[in-house]
Prior knowledge:
The protein is of the alpha+beta class. The chain is 39% helix and 26% strand. The strands form 2 sheets. Strands 3-4-2-5-8-10-9 form a 7-stranded mixed sheet. Helix 3 packs antiparallel against helix 4. The radius of gyration is 18 Å and the shape is globular.
Amino acid sequence: NSLNSFMGAAxxxxxxxxxxxxxxxxxxxxxxxxxxxxxxxxxxxxHVRLLREHDExxxxxxxxxxxREVKHTGDGIMAAFISISACLSFAIQVQxxxxxxxxxxxxxxxxxxxxxxxxxxxxxxDDLFGAAVQLAARLCAHASPSEITVSLGVHELSAGKSxxxxxxxxxxxxxxxxxxxxxxxxxxx
Length: 189
């Protein structure tokens, strides 16, 4: 039909085979900092309540910013965005909501967030794989509590937008062959 002649035919993938996502994605990992210590300090039930609060905050902000939850990672969530600006706004709102929540709670928790960008490979269950995913996970693991650490690519793609960053320098991240230039996204009110 005429739409296919203009846009190209819809891609078809054999079930169970990996394929490349047809667009750039911002990949985000959130992680509750010190969760192992929290379990020992607070007990399983209290830790599960904190985890549920984290999940509610992250999922409601994903919905507000057109993000897609890829999977739960145990102590956090992996998500994907088509828009870099929406992704950065999401991360800022998550940190602000956690901060507001902690101001009125006896048991606080901190979240670290890592963000990278690339063209991930998609598996048969809509999970994402590849270098961009690995980089986001490593940036999250390297981030300090309440920090949003982003890759050089994310920083460059947000040029001209109303986000402020501070230079983190070259980070040596576990499993990656070369140091990675990274930035912290400023989010404090």
